[in-house]
Amino acid sequence: MGDYELGAIQTEFAELIWEREPVSSGELVKLCSEQFEWKKSTTYTVLRKLCEKGIMKNEDGVVTSIVSREAFYAAKSGQFVEETFQGSLPAFIAAFASGKKLSKKEMDEIQQMIDDFRA
Question: Residue 24's beta-bridge partner residues?
């Protein structure tokens, strides 16, 4: 897994790209000016950092993702389970479910996941 440690602003910036990709770097500057009130230099600095982390790429003024939104959040979730629950998915699920009632639909979905892994 790459270095997917992003701050809140970097994550919002990545979301902006994922929602619109492929997006021209000029359009990205305009969007960031409107949404974050960033100067052009700030947009390019944050973009460069995401490119250095291997999450985004900027080729010929067109910005696209190297890592999809789904892969990014899957990696982050795995990292969280590893760091917080010593990699134990059952411990994570128990902690997540404690204090709340799972719906039948949620239980069925979890059971289907288990069945799929066994197959």
Answer: 62
Residue 4 to residue 18: CA distance in whole angstroms = 15
The Cα 75–Cα 108 span in angstroms is: 24
CA 51 to chain centre: 14
Q: Which of 61, 3, 23 is nearest to 13 (CA)?
A: 23
pLDDT at 21: 97
Segment 86-109 shows an average pLDDT of 86
Distance in angstroms (rounded) separating the CA atoms of residues 86 and 1: 17
- Please give the angle made by the CA atoms of 95, 6 and 70, to the nearest 5 degrees: 65
Classified as helix, coil or strand, 57 is strand
Helix (H) or strand (E) holding 10: helix 8-20
Structure tokens at 44: 């390019």
- Domains detected in the chain: 8-69 (1.10.10.10), 88-119 (no CATH)
Highest mean pLDDT among 1-10, 39-48, 101-110: 39-48
pLDDT at residue 2 is higher than 80: no
